[in-house]
Amino acid sequence: MAEETVKESCSILMISNDMEWMLAFSKGVQRFFLLNERRADTLEQAESRMLESRPDIVVLAVQEGLPSMDKLRPIVREKIHPPVPVIVIDSKPEGLDQWIKQGAEYACARRDLLSAVKHVQQLMRVAHFDRTLHGVEKDAKAISDRYERIYHDLPDPVAYVQDGLFVDANPAFLHTFGVKDRAALDELTLMSFVPHKSERGIKALLKKATEKEVVPSERFELQAINGGKVDVNISVSSITIHDEPGLQMYFRSTEAGGSGGGTGLDPTTSLAGPRVIAASIKQTQERSEPKAVLGYWVYAWIENYREVWQKDGYKAAEIMIKTVADTTRRFLPPSTEIVRFTDDGLALWLTGKKEESIKRVNGLIAHLDEVVPENIGRLVHPKVFAGISEITSESGYEDLVSKGFRAVRSLAMSQSSDRVAEPMSGDISRKDERRVNEIQAILDDDRLRVQYQPISALEADGVPRYAERLLVLPPASDIEGGEAPQMMELDQLMQVAERFGFARQFDRYKITAMIQDILSYEGDQRALQCFINLSTDTMLDDTFPEWIDSQLRATGISPSQITFELRLDNLANGFTGAVHLIEKMRPQGSRFALAGVGRMDATVREMLERVKPEVIKLDMREIDTFEDREEEEFMREVKKYAGEHHTMLIADNMESPAQLSRVWPHDIQYIQGDGIVPAMDKFTFDFNEPLF
Q1: Which residues on adjacent β-strands are paired with residue 231?
Q2: CA distance 538 to 507
Q3: Residue 684 forms part of a structural domain
Q4: Which alpha helices (H) appear in 110-195, and where do they start and end?
Q5: Is 148 contained in some domain?
Q6: What is the pTM of this model?
Q7: Contact yes or no for 96/109 (Cβ under 8 A)
Q8: Which of 153, 208, 294, 415 is the most exposed place for a label (fewest CB within 10 A)?
Q9: Domain count of the fold of the chain
Q10: Which of 134-148, 175-189, 399-413, 427-441 has the highest mean pLDDT?
């Protein structure tokens, strides 16, 4: 019985105007390969088709009027990498050696067709081996580069140690422990950072790791080069470094600061995170007399941070907030507590009298108007709004935060020339007050409902994927005659909800509801894949990662069933919080989607690089506005990224089946939208049935 062989594909560009010979050659090659054939009879055609199709082999049948090897060589050797091999077919057998000298891989007489086909076989075997090797090398390099970027950018210190000596350490380690640079680390040992009282515990921890035991994180007091105390939780794992046993050590701060580094410091501004100021206020309140005034809470919001992000990229936006932070530190008294509170704002705790504090904040705002951040690439001044409110021994921290957000956002939208707001009871307009009351009534009356929209595969794969959608019921008084209530999408109120601090409540409501629906699902619960869209406020909520983790652990739902959707327009203000969530949940198996992608500019590319999403959701509403060429370029880049990073693509906001004509040519396999499958109350869609 003859052995069945699977044909490999072979792409050939044939340069000839002899149709009979080309058909014969194609037929010969097709005996061994699945042939993808292109033809050209001029140099211009040959060049354009080589560049657009990147053939495996070029076959030149020499005859009058066709390009010579001299003209072909610059194209196949210089413009295409790796160079494309060329086979020359000549009607004159006596001139074959000359072609080899000119750079052809092989040359044969026109009558020797079988020889040419066999050499194609040989070249393809070599090409297949080279592609395989190149693919392995590329994958290895991509993994290595990705690891290096993650390792370098980690906000928490990481060090690699052998026999007590440092092999390597990331910038966060150097910063945390006060080491000048990497070279200075070579002169130090691990025990250089261990005070006497922690020596025994550290040595016991290292011994456990070298014995390959499971070593839980342990808390230690270490010391920086300058003698300063560094409280950290240390995780250690045994690894191989240059074929020798070594240790990877991960340090996470125990301070109340957020996720901005092993010291609790934000790496951009070197300021502490929001938990630090919360802890300071709480401690002071516990020691203070009843109704005592402890100072003034100030939230300073950079209104054009997002604009700079979108126009100039994330790095430029971070330069802006660093400039604001540095200027604020210099301008205000040293006793002022300053933290990076959000991606686009700082929180301050001023301790002077009210009039003095307001004067200082107004002076700071005026001073910041004159500041120009360096290296943004264009002239731009940070536009800062501030909300100031009294801190007393009875002040609730959440109330202070909420008031600050409301004050600055309302002031920014009011078109007033004022830049500093005092959040009092009458700090919002009557219209906004009505809408705030409406949102509060929705929450109080439990008028929220969650529906689930299937994410369908064009070729049914049986995997149940759903995206949540939060809806609002009308008041009971609006439902007449026992009719079924008409629900409206929350999007209509979400802008007000985010301005006035309700968005986090909505997010937690829908997550809690989704968890309950998963638990009541009659099918295989473990097969469900649920997509959860997060608001900016939830990204900024530094308690959210711990909260969602506790919810999943308590119910036994695997984090791998959850995909968190991070919308591009929300990331501009919530990126730091998103990073914290990613660091917490991705190692546990949760996935992340970059949603609302309808362009491919510097900002999107930067977010792809930083978030490294497992899923990209394409906004078809925006793509529908593209011209054909614009759409082609966008899809080409998106698909290239997805292919290189094994990223799932979903065409989102599909409003009609007619839009499939824009999806099919690009081989987008997953679609979502009301025009395909409307949202439903339960997980009841049959993913085994084809859509069309």
Answers
A1: 221
A2: 7
A3: no
A4: 113-153, 171-176, 182-185
A5: no
A6: 0.54
A7: yes
A8: 415
A9: 4
A10: 175-189
